[in-house]
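Format notes (please read before filing issues)

Several people have asked whether sequences and structure tokens are stored in separate files. They are not. Every record keeps both together, in the order shown below: the sequence lines, then the token lines. Line labels are part of the format and must not be stripped during preprocessing.
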Amino acid sequence: MKKFVSFLLCIPCVHIWGAVCQMPDSSFLNLADFSGMDSFYERGIYGQNVNAANIELHVPDTYSPNYMLFLEDANYSTYYPSEYTTENIGIHQNQTLAVMAGYNASYGDQSVSTGLAHKATYTAVQAGENTMLLSADKVILSTYEKFFSNGTEVISSSWKDSGERGHLAGTVLDSYACNNPSVVFVAAASNDASEGAGHVNSPYKNMNVVKVGALDDTTYFKTISSSSSYGPNDFYNPITGEVVKGVVSAVDIAAAGTVYTTKANETLGNVSGTSLAAPTVSSAAILMLSYSKEKNMDVSSRDARLVKSILLNSAKKLDSWDNGTQIRDSVSVNGKVFNGVFTTERALDYYSGAGALDAEQALAEYDKFGSTSFLEEVAKSDSSFYYFESAADNAVLNATLCWFAGSEVENVIYDSSLNISSIDASSSYFANLDLRLWYQNDGGELQLIAQSISEYNNVEHLYLNLDKSGNYALEVFFKDLIYGDTAKETYALAWNLAQSQIPEPSCVAILAAISAIACIAARRRKNPAASYATGSWK
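Then the structure lines:
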């Protein structure tokens, strides 16, 4: 079994633009092995045929050529905005890029000098500098716009905005993602836990992105780092300017965010933080796209929403995982009342999102694209049903629904400092989709088992024990619109069954060991209204 991991030389460096914090020394960790990426390497997948961009802000005063050691033979080029004054990549770019792209053919130990997806083609992008001009929104956003539209397939970023324009700039970023769904956008959640909840800036307060928290090396990556930012974030309506406080589950997934050095005479510790966790997740996304191309999978398998849904759905639950699931009585659907319905109104855990990255499980689920994962559309006020059979009692269901905030920004006004002062997002919309689980009892009647009904998120997630074998159905329901209007919405849905027992929710201290698929016989129906009304399953 061939294993790869990036290691970096380290000096203390904490910067307002970066998401790196210094951690104490800890045990050796092979990131590839721990994160499950060896499963891709065993199939000959190292990121080949994928274009990726690592978009960072520059820290010019801390540049050191020592950090280039593991990038000496890496497959990357550089890009600088025309306003840029310094054409070298700084320490933070070196660190985050090396996790993905690192390669040094002459280095003695390839197992510790090779990046997690080193055969992809990378661009090291310096979107701004810590000067007034080069950290301006206009410079940064125009750089992102370029890489969302030039054939780049994965964008990884590990910096945060510290200003008050995050919602405006985040809406602009969301518009780039919405209009370019072939680009998977991954970003660090930032390291502002000390400031309390609601400081996830990745890099602005955008939603069409995979937001990554960091696991703590001092607990062998079984808990979230004490510095990793957590939700809930505020929700911003770009049409009205209204802000709804504390309703967005802002972290999507967590990953090991610690990278170690091996050269004793140069080692000062390790580099940790969400900055290193983000490129770890980006590497998993790159490997997925590379695998899709090698296997000649349908192009829809490379849609950002589909990739995100599988990454989240395959994640391992931490012992502390809690998405607020409660058992609710008197749930009314189409005039019929159901009791004992597992219900979450926030979908994800505020700290770890769907859980810890598991690239091996992600690959297993990716292999079932078209069977247990789909990219499809649902009309307003309509539903799509996905039928499956569980042959085993006490199977565990993971199901994840992802879609975009439909941001359309027609005009951006900048002030004299080139920072955003206003935007025209009057054509934007945000669909409110729900995810429901149904069971067909022995009498043929449909019973509502569970629902994820978060109002202000663009992710819904179910995680629960199916205590009965039999016929089930997942329903994607277009409930209403939070703002704007659209006749339909494109979504990605992924699910799996596992042989494991989980405690009665509250879902705090859930025991998750996602293993082999229990048994699935999926049947899809695009217009299930008649069968739903009559209770007919076939």
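For reference, the curators noted about this record: The first strand starts at residue 5 and ends at 6. The domain at 317-534 is CATH 2.60.120.380 (Jelly Rolls).
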